[in-house]
Specification:
The protein is an alpha/beta fold. It has a single domain (8-191), classed as Spore Coat Polysaccharide Biosynthesis Protein SpsA, Chain A (Alpha-Beta Complex), CATH 3.90.550. The chain is built from 6 helices and 7 strands; from the N terminus they run βαββαβαββααβα. It has a 7-stranded mixed sheet with strand order 3-2-1-4-6-5-7, sandwiched between helices. Helix 2 (78-91) runs antiparallel to helix 4 (143-151). It is globular. The mean pLDDT is 86.
């Protein structure tokens, strides 16, 4: 068995959570006993180090076993925050990072392991009928490219994936890639 190359992790926790009506990062995890951000960090920390959490300015978070970085600009979407996290991971000496949304209550290390095995590309995304941009492996040297995209007015992760070498890995549909954007989504995931 080949030992996977080291990965940093970037958790995007500073979203507006408009459809949820409250901060998703501090929602109680459906399994109970922890918040969504704490759960996400625990999964990522099992395979990745260091772990960076990108939070909104002034966003209240519990004490976390991760480095918390604050977004400098609010409301521009995940692309800018991804760039910030990748730059921090590069400064920590890592060439790749697993970028994750904070709202994936059933994310597993198996997803990370599956994607980490692919090399020689800029981005590795899981695909189960659609791209999951916020559950992928990204080269940390993409931070400057992201800055250029943002300066050109781009805000979507799709813009990044379409302008670099991206590998899509088929992963069977299931709860590991599900995210929760609204109270109805959360109830559906709990009902399972």
């Amino acid at each position: 068995m080949v030992t996977p190359a080291p990965l940093a992790a970037v958790v995007l926790a500073g979203g507006a959570s408009r459809r949820m009506g409250r901060d998703k990062a501090t929602l109680e995890h459906p399994g109970g006993g922890t918040t969504m951000v704490e759960y996400t960090i625990s999964v990522l920390a099992a395979r990745c180090a260091p772990v960076f959490v990108i939070a909104a300015p002034g966003q209240a978070l519990p004490a976390l076993g991760a480095d918390v970085l604050r977004d400098e600009v609010r409301g521009v979407g995940p692309l800018l925050a991804t760039g910030r996290g990748l730059r921090a991971a590069a400064a920590a000496g890592l060439e790749r990072a697993f970028v994750s949304a904070v709202d994936m209550p059933f994310l597993t290390t198996a997803v990370i392991d599956e994607l980490a095995g692919y090399h020689g590309v800029d981005v590795v995304l899981p695909w189960d009928g659609r791209d999951h941009y916020l559950a992928g492996v990204y080269r940390t040297d993409l931070a400057d490219h992201i800055d250029a995209l943002v300066a050109a007015g781009e805000r979507s992760m799709r813009a990044l994936a379409e302008t670099v070498v991206t590998q899509r890995v088929v992963i069977p549909a299931g709860p590991a890639l599900a995210n929760v954007n609204s109270p109805a989504d959360l109830q559906q995931q709990i009902a399972g």
